[in-house]
Write a structure and sequence with these properties.
This protein has 51 residues and is mainly α. 75% of the residues lie in helices and 0% in strands.
Length: 51
């Protein structure tokens, strides 16, 4: 469960950075997609472990 929370926080930070007012803090859509993919994988591992 802790991994899912950690991955969700990383995804939230990536999303916020995408829309940042500071140009130096902005990230590309690939960074957000990578964080989302990591989150999905963590959720899948959690789901598989509970069965």
């Amino acid at each position: 469960m802790a991994e899912v929370v950690t991955r969700f926080e990383a995804y939230a930070r990536a999303r916020a950075a995408r829309d940042s007012l500071l140009p130096g803090a902005r990230t590309g859509p690939w960074h957000e997609q990578r964080a989302f993919d990591d989150l999905q994988a963590a959720v899948a591992r959690l789901r598989d472990g509970r069965r």
